[in-house]
Here is the input.
Amino acid sequence: MKKLSIYFAVILLYCGCAGAQNHDFASVPQPKAGEAVATFGGGCFWSMSEALSELKGVDKVVSGYAGGTTKNPTYEDVCTRETGHAEVVQVYYDPKVLSFETLVHGFFFAHDPTEVNRQGPDVGTDYRSIVFSRNDQEKAVIQDEIKKINALKHYSGSIVTQVEPFKVFYPAEKYHQGYYRLHLGENPYLSSVSEPKVEKFRKAMKAELKPEFQK
Here is the structure.
């Protein structure tokens, strides 16, 4: 059993939230008329991107980097933990269909917001839990949601998510975009780490999911 555990640990190490050195970056779309934008970080952006994209009212989700100081970082730059950036997703959504409150609520169920600088096997500041506010109203919504979830004791620990004003978002490489759907079933990291997080999110947010995900 010990040898088997070591084997799986090695598999996760080499097949984790990573990729080849391909620096063909995605573009940052302009929001459509009436669309709102929100930015969240909760561990590897592969599962976070998939989870939030399944909510009704979400048009698109772009994986990228935010929260640091290095301009136009690559994935390899962020992995050094010297850029200050976290892996994040930028969500484009229709506020008439999906409220910011519901989006924030979903974010807190798409990962474990009580873990400091890690999510499961992914360890480091680039995997920290962080949410960005674009105005005082959004900041208040985020803080209220944190208080509610802590009061309900949904998690055994207290939420440690950083709440910071939004400054800039840098898109990740194209191979990271929509990675979950493209590679589920062929990447052991996705089936071992990402898929359970997405399934947990679906159960918690079932009423808010697009029809095709309401299983």
